[in-house]
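Bench log, entry 3. Co-assembly request; chain sequences pasted below exactly as received.
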Amino acid sequence: MGEGEEQVKVLSQWPSPFAIRVLIGLEEKNVRYESLEENFASKTELLVQMNPIHRKVPVLIHNGKPICESLIILQYIDEVWPGSNSFMPSNPYDRALAKFWADFIDTKFLGTGIHGILKKTGEAQEEGKRYMLEYLGLLEGVLKEFSAGGSKPYFGGEQFGFLDIAFICHTCWFEAMETLGKWKIPWESEFPRLLEWMKKCRERESVHKIFPDPHKILEYAIKFREGYLRSN
Amino acid sequence: MEVCGEDGQLKLLGQPYSPFVVRVSIALAVKGIHYEFIEEDIHNKSELLLKSNPVHKKIPVLIHNGKPVCESMNIVQYIEEAWGNKAPNILPKDPYDRAIARFWAAFVDDKFIPSIWGVFKDEGEEQQKAVEETVANFLLLEETLSGKAYFGGDEIGLVDIALGGLLVTIQTVEKITNSVLIDKQKMPLLSAWADKFCKADRVKEVLPDPATLLKLMWERKAKMTSPPAGN
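Structure output for the full assembly:
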């Protein structure tokens, strides 16, 4: 490795919203990196070595040192490559709020909303849909507040920031959730700000480059659901 | 000790026996920050709590100049940032070391809390499984302590607070379930750390009284194992 040369690798899986999150973060900072695709059937030796505790993607390997957990990785990326586009809000209170909502998205929204539709059937799946609508309603309100009533484009205000990156990665799964749940999310009538925000985010080079094809996500989601329901 | 007015108004909504609240109390104590503790009855939550944490309706909530911060480890990191110039620093300066501290703090939340809860509430085989899981997790933490007084190095840091806040609860669960979770033989460093942490200045003042916590948790256990009244 030459002087001044940085080595940045990401252990990734193309449908993983957590991996997508990290790749978008690196793209936003214009960091050169190599993405190594982990397969689903078995974990590589490198993954087990770099993330022995959880054995999960994503892992950022910076000059040979691993960083795990996507939200922790995002903060690391922001601290190591500050640049002109800081992901984190400038004051501690807004940072605490951004982290609170990112955690809410990964636990409640994903756990009971998205996974409720992906992994459940019948009434339990209907409950998943209700949770998803309830949480989208909360996030619509958060976006209204953080975007100063819509005068700014993002959860980060003027800046496409931590919370935007934390949430946008899950949105590539929405169409698959609608198909699997045989329903349509009432974006225009109920969540117009989120709809507008998603359009804006998808226009960004980073998101456009990293986002997987929604048809491929749907194919993957269908297979995942079949396998999951068979073994549970 | 700083006067409340200098940093503005600071309130902690909580309950002194909740390990999550204890984490926040430890962070405030370690930094020498003055605040008002407002005790919540979790079976009869106050308007202030419901207004301050409408999403989860849970303690702890730190209210700083009227603005609420929720989720214990989120609050601890907020305290570190809002009083960043006040020693000691709970997080290291180097980004990689910060990421490692955050990783292990998250590990405590994601792995420990569910397994310790399992030890407490489960019986028979399920409980045995939870004990084995907790011991395995402690052994991982034992490895990360090598050569250090605290997880944070020479001073108490983020991971010390994340795990330390749970210590008296863990020791109480051991007593109630007659299990050994922090094994002195297998985990000499962790045992020494637990001892040192509980006796540390500023920390010892905010740890819950073990006798009272034992009584409260016995009462809770009794409610869990007694059959429901009527149908």
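Chain B touches chain A through 22 residues (CB under 8 Å). Residues 223 and 230 of chain B are 15 Å apart (CA to CA).
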